[in-house]
Design goal:
The chain is an alpha/beta fold. The chain has 8 helices and 8 strands, in the order βαβααβαββαβααβαβ.
Length: 211
């Protein structure tokens, strides 16, 4: 389905305030796809950033794939819709793709570890479809499946999943914004796991409070 710019707006509303971190804007550059990670304490903080980034991509004619928990999916959708975007039309057209993070994990986790083939089939298939719908064949993606794995005390699986995303980026055209809640890392975060997680990203953006 072809969508004209005017079709995107369901109503007139005030513009987004924007991301608190200008570094995140590099996620919108198709010529230089990025894989960023951000740690956070206040979930409203990450919802604001994701909503802004997804809306920016959609208005630019690119697709947005949001892999998040059900409560976050609802909050992000409400936040974007409140600023005038016609998400019903965008979702129907395949430009806006919400994916439940728990359900996604269930599709490719085997013995507490992500299975490469299943991951490529499921997430790769979603990205491929989203690429085909966007005007530039580019996708902004957000993911917090890794956060769920850390919350389940399985940081090694989170690192493996980050590596699978990086491998997928060699075959698909997308930028990925990952988010980890500080609470999912435990009272005393595993320093080795944190270093390995950060090493899988092109940029690490700090949380509101020190790790």
């Amino acid at each position: 389905m072809s969508i004209l710019p005017a079709d995107l707006l369901a109503n007139r509303a005030a513009p987004f305030r924007g991301s608190r971190y200008p570094e995140l804007l590099c996620l919108h550059k198709p010529q230089n796809a990025q894989h960023l990670v951000q740690f956070y304490e206040d979930e409203s903080f990450i919802i604001e950033n994701v909503s802004f980034l997804a809306a920016h991509a959609l208005v630019s004619g690119d697709s947005s794939v949001i892999v998040a928990t059900e409560p976050h999916l609802r909050a992000i959708r409400e936040r974007i819709a409140a600023h005038g975007l016609n998400l019903n039309l965008l979702q129907k057209s395949g430009l806006y793709v919400p994916v439940d993070a728990s359900e996604a994990l269930a599709r490719f986790m085997v013995d507490r570890s992500p299975d490469r083939v299943k991951f490529n089939q499921f997430i790769g298939g979603i990205l491929s479809s989203a690429e085909n719908q966007g005007g530039r064949g580019f996708v902004f993606a957000f993911g917090e499946m890794v956060d769920l794995l850390c919350a389940a005390k399985n940081p090694q699986a989170a690192v493996h999943l980050e590596q699978l995303w990086n491998d997928l980026a060699t075959r698909h055209h997308f930028s990925l914004y990952c988010a980890y809640s500080l609470s999912s890392l435990g009272d005393v975060p595993d320093a080795d796991a944190l270093m390995r997680i950060c090493a899988e990203h092109s940029l690490t953006i700090p949380s509101e409070t020190p790790l």
